[in-house]
Structures are given as C-alpha cells and as structure tokens.
Amino acid sequence: MASPAAAGPSLLPTTDILTTTNTSPNTDAFVYPPQYSFPPFYTLQPNLTTRASQLSSWSGLILAYAAHANPRLYRLTPAHSIFTNTALRRTLAPTDARLVLAHMVEHGRAAWTDPTAATKARKAGAGSDGGGGEVWLYWRTPEEWAQQLGSWVEATGQRNTVLTLYELLEGDATSREEFHGLPVEVAKSAVAVLVRRGRAQMLGEGDGVGVKFF
Amino acid sequence: MADRRPGLSAFSRNTITSAQYASHGSQLRSSHASSLQTQLSVFQSLLHQFSVSHAKEIRSNPQFRNEFARMCNAIGVDPLLSSSSGRRSGNHGSEGSAAGGSLWAKMLGGSVNDFYFELAVRVVEICRETRAENGGMIALTEVKTRVSKGRGIGGSMEVSEEDILRAVQSLEPLGSGFVVLKIGSKQMIRSVPKELNIDQSVVLEAMQVLGYVAISMLQVNLGWGRARCVAVIDDLISDGLVWVDRQAEETEYWGSAWIGAGES
C-alpha cells in the first residue's frame, strides 16, 4: 500500500499538517495537528478571520486523517467520530461540522454525495439540518485521480482497450495502485475529467460502465 | 624685582613645558592607538579566519553560533550589521568605522549574515501562515519548532531562540512591524502592528497559567467588574488573539498564540 503520497502544494493553506502526517500512510500512528487538542477548536469561532482559519484547519485534518486511515476514508458525515475528541470531551456540533464540509466542497476538497439534498437543505434555510450533509472526500482531487488512472493505463499499455470500472478499481491488476478501492462515484468524476480532456470515453450505463482510454 | 624675573620667563617656560607635555601626550596616544589598531587588525583577521573555517559549524550548530554571536557582541561587532549601515560609528574612531563597518560585514557576511536573513524570511513566512489562526501573535517556542520542522528546499534549520530573536531584530530596518513582546514569562512575536493596552496584556498574561481564562476567573483574580472583563475579552476576540470554547462549564477563552506551544 505504500505510495508516494505527495501532498502537493494544492492542498489548502494548512499544508504543514498534511506534509508531516501524509508521508507514510498506514504505517505510523496518525499524528493529529496541534489544533486537535485545542478545546476551542470544537466551537465555531465568532471572529470571521479566526473562523476561516478554523475551517481550513478542520479541512486539512479531515483530509490527512482520511488518507491515513486504514481502510482509507472516502465518505464522511457531520456525525463522524473525527469531530469528537473524547479525551477533551469536546465535539464539533453536526451543524458546525456541516459548515466544515460545505467549506471543503467550496474549495474542491469534497463533494456532496447527494447534491440535490444539499441544495434543498440550503434552500430550506441555514437552521435546518435536513438530510444530506454527507460528502465524498477528495484527499486526492478528481484531477489527481485522473492523472493516476491515465498513467497506469499508459504504463500497462492498455490504451484503446475497454476496461470496466470494476476492473480498474477492484481488479487484481490494480491492487498496488492508490486508486484501488476508490468508490465508483469518485472514480466517475475522475474519468469525467479525462473525458473532458478527450483522453477517455465512457461506455455503457449502470454497474457495467466501461472506460476506454486514448 | 626678584619675583618678577621668573614671572616673565615663566610664561614662555610654561608654554614650552605644556607644549612638550601635549606633544608627549599625543605621541603616547598615537602609539597607543597604533598598537591597538595592530591588535585589532590581527584580531580581525583571526576572527575572519575563524568565521571562515567554522562557517559550517556556525550555520549548523545553534550553541556554537550563539557563543560566536556573544563573542562578537562583547567586542562590539554586530554580525548582522549590513555593509551600508554606518550606525555604529560612535564606537570607533570616525575613520575606522566607515571602512570597518563594511569590512566586518564582508568578513562575516558570507556565513553569518545570510544565515540570519534566511531565518528571518522563514520567521516572516511562519507569521504570515499562522496569522489567521493566531491574530498575528505567535509564541517564540512555536516559531522555533516550526522552523526546525522545516520544509521545502532549504530543509530544516537547527536554531535557538536567540537566533530567532536576532533574526527578528534584523528585520527592524525594514520597518516591518515585527516586534518581540514579553507576556508573562513567554516571549511572543507580534507581526501585526497593533498596540496591546494594559488590560489586554494582563489578560493574555493570565491565560498563560492554564492556557485559558473565564470571565469569573478574571473577576475574582483581577478584581475587575464584569463589564470590564467582557470588554477586554471582546477586544481580544475581534483581534483574533483569543478562541472561544463554549463547551466548558463556563465559556472559556483560549489564547490562540499557544495552540501549538503547549506541547513543546
């Protein structure tokens, strides 16, 4: 599973956290950033500058944690245990956690699993916590996944071959790749990037979706 | 009559002797000065040799660097003095300082100056990166851990707190507004040019004891009225210097400058 998890410079302002914790996933214990043991981190801050920094610290923490977890974490709800620090007896309230996730979606580091529910919830007003709120975590952005898929296809000489998504994500041939085990939904958004660049084509519908790389 | 003769010639004799004294004095002074100058130049060249041959150690070993800087300080040499600066002319003779100032910088510049300027750049970076989080005030110890963790091209730097203080001082001519404050027992670097009033300093100092304060704590320990406590806290929050924790029994206010400082 060892992979050069290069936390690129695109990883939000809190790159420090990511570069220090991300170098060797799944081997060392996860090192929480210092904010994790800072009690006010679990209360939404009234000062807007401070709050912006708080949200991006949360985002960095979540992405680093998700990439480090074993098995890796691909989806997250506002009620996830990462938002609770039992030692401090502090929890980021689900409404606040939702703001964190919204911040991540805004910055391209996550996507709502159910976009329609998310927009509905927003229309219903900020106060309601009606459904939605679950996100796909992009600790690799779809662009980065797309790049990995592309170079794997290139390296294995499978251009112009039709591969099913299942083969790509669950097949033995890719078991050493980082994208192995990637949820289909995330993989689709990565393939969509390649399609937009004219480097791939999606074939078929439903579970048997195939991809052809050029 | 008898007392007039020596009186008249005494004038010329006095001038002669005082002239002789003066010339002798100036002779002594000049020989003294030249011997000092020789000593100084010998010392200069030795210091130069020393700084060149130990340049690597000066850069890599914080303790060694510290001793070196202290030695330079003791003899009135500022390793950070830039070549254009003539501020230290008061310490030397007028002639020596103009040439001497740049000479020192040239001698030591290669290793020592660059080191501190590099470090200063890192310190500025760290202050800017963390400004949203801590309102532009960061503990010196935190800066130190962040610098030594390092990242990027230069890799990590092994530095002492004195190094960082010196680096911050080297920013002074730029008028950049980086100030080292002492709050209670901790030294903080303030990168946002704003004065703290006395009440704010007192509250920040009180925060060091437990890492946080609550309104009732301030009332009891400082004997302030509630309104005064609330006002100070509100000011600190709006400056981004304090984070709020509403999940404690009574709302607690934590100093943001100590987020990472508690562990080091």
TrEMBL record, chain A:
Gene Ontology CC, one term: ESCRT II complex
GO MF term set: protein homodimerization activity; structural molecule activity
Top-level division of the source organism's lineage: Eukaryota
This protein's record includes keyword Oxidoreductase: no
GO biological process, one term: macroautophagy
Pfam families: ESCRT-II
Ligase in keyword set: no
The name this protein goes by in its record: ESCRT-II complex subunit VPS25
From TrEMBL, chain B:
Record keywords, A-Z: Cytoplasm, Endosome, Membrane, Protein transport, Transport
SUPFAM superfamilies xref list: Winged helix' DNA-binding domain
Name the UniProt record assigns to this protein: Vacuolar protein sorting-associated protein
Similarity remark: Belongs to the SNF8 family.
Localization annotation: Cytoplasm; Endosome membrane
Topological relation to the membrane, as annotated: Peripheral membrane protein
Gene Ontology cellular component terms for the protein in this record: ESCRT II complex
Pfam families hit by this protein: EAP30 (PF04157)
PANTHER family: EAP30 SUBUNIT OF ELL COMPLEX (PTHR12806), VACUOLAR-SORTING PROTEIN SNF8 (PTHR12806:SF0)
Gene source species: Carpinus fangiana
Free-text function comment from the UniProt entry: Component of the endosomal sorting complex required for transport II (ESCRT-II), which is required for multivesicular body (MVB) formation and sorting of endosomal cargo proteins into MVBs.
Assembly and binders: Component of the endosomal sorting complex required for transport II (ESCRT-II).
